[in-house]
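Example S7 (structure tokens).
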């Protein structure tokens, strides 16, 4: 579900024909490529190539920016700068040095380079930091040759982030080196509503992917998170319900404070394309206006959150406030999830939870009891609902005495997980 403006779709086709196509790469966590593909197709973009950890696609610049602003799944969106065929590190240096870096970077701007390998390239090149250094040398030597000066590296807060992807081609002859411009700055998964420094079990885009992978109907169903923690699943579900772009808080900072809250807003290629700049600024204002209206339309008694930890609930309330969500939209409770049931509710709906990991419990037995008793509560009190549990422990999920109707794979960082579905009859 994406926010869309009211312009005729023909304008997108005309833009593609008249202004040419650019290549973009949207990255995402493992096992989320399918959801990311659906998002891209939903934007009318069909020129795509699925990669491990993301999607390569072609569209016009304005459509690429619109996708960035609306994506719930992408971690970052990059714009292609150069594609090189190389044989080794020296070849990378020589080929990269000839690229027109001055078209995307000024001498006074800072930059940072990140390098990623596919599995074959990893065994050949081995050290991504060393390869990043080679590309950095090519870039700065290019500027020295022309201006006798060079831009500086800033690994913390660069004006421009660059991504180098090294992959083995199908014919296994040499290497494909793709250089991309990071259009985001901060990762898109950093929505901006979490308390600074807080480390939650789920990234925001993973939480959105979990919600989108359920059969929850935002127009009809209740949404109950029985172990809501600090509220990430709840907030992402509310944004889906309101058709609110997940980047809206950064849009808000741009509109209200003129903050360059996305990296592309201060990048040379964007500022020089005046028609893209004009359309984008109007679109950002449209998103801002839409969000003001959408939050006011949210209704009470559709979203319920519960947690046994009062500190989590306090943080959840803070995050709901930070996310602009009006008071009363989420009904919060402080209870044990194995006994929790909001009596005022009726099916249909989804009841979901992300149970604690082992280090958050005193013993394996405590976790086994938690999973077993939670399953019993679902059977007893949530008839007519669909139950979902997101967990990484195969043995613990066997303690739930319910028939699993679906298992959806995910990765939470490097941890392999499953979203389990239960039909509660």
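Recovered sequence:
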């Amino acid at each position: 579900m994406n926010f869309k403006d009211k312009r005729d779709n023909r304008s997108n086709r005309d833009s593609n024909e008249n202004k040419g196509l650019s290549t973009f790469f949207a990255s995402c966590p493992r096992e989320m490529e399918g959801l990311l593909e659906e998002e891209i197709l939903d934007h009318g973009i069909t020129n795509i190539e699925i990669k491990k950890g993301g999607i390569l696609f072609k569209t016009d610049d304005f459509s690429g920016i619109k996708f960035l602003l609306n994506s719930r799944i992408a971690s970052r969106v990059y714009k292609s700068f150069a594609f090189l065929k190389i044989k080794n590190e020296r070849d990378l240096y020589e080929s990269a040095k000839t690229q027109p870096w001055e078209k995307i970077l000024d001498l006074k701007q800072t930059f940072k380079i990140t390098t990623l390998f596919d599995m074959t390239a990893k065994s050949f090149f081995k050290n991504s930091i060393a390869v990043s250094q080679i590309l950095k040398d090519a870039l700065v030597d290019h500027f020295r040759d022309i201006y006798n000066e060079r831009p500086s590296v800033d690994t913390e807060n660069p004006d421009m982030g660059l991504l180098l992807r090294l992959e083995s081609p199908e014919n296994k002859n040499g290497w494909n080196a793709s250089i991309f411009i990071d259009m985001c700055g901060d990762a898109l998964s950093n929505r901006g509503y979490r308390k600074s420094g807080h480390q939650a079990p789920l990234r925001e885009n993973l939480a959105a992917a979990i919600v989108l992978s359920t059969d929850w109907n935002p127009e009809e169903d209740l949404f109950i998170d029985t172990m809501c923690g600090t509220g990430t699943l709840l907030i992402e579900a509310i944004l889906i319900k309101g058709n609110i772009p997940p980047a809206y808080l950064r849009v808000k900072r741009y509109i209200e404070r003129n903050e360059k809250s996305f990296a592309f807003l201060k990048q040379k290629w964007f500022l020089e394309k005046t028609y893209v700049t004009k359309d984008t600024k109007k679109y950002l204002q449209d998103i801002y206006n839409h969000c003001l209206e959408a939050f006011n339309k949210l209704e009470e008694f559709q979203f319920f959150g519960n947690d046994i930890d009062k500190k989590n609930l306090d943080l959840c309330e803070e995050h709901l406030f930070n996310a602009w969500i009006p008071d009363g939209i989420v009904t919060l409770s402080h209870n044990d999830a194995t006994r929790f049931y909001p009596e005022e509710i009726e099916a249909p709906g989804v009841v979901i939870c992300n149970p604690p990991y082992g280090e958050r419990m005193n013993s394996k037995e405590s976790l086994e009891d938690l999973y077993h008793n939670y399953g019993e509560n679902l059977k007893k009190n949530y008839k007519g609902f669909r139950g979902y549990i997101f967990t990484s422990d195969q043995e613990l999920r066997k303690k739930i005495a319910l028939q699993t109707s679906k298992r959806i794979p995910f990765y939470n960082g490097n941890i392999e997980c499953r979203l389990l579905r239960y039909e509660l009859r």
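Notes on this example. The chain has two domains: 10-182, 204-242+299-423.
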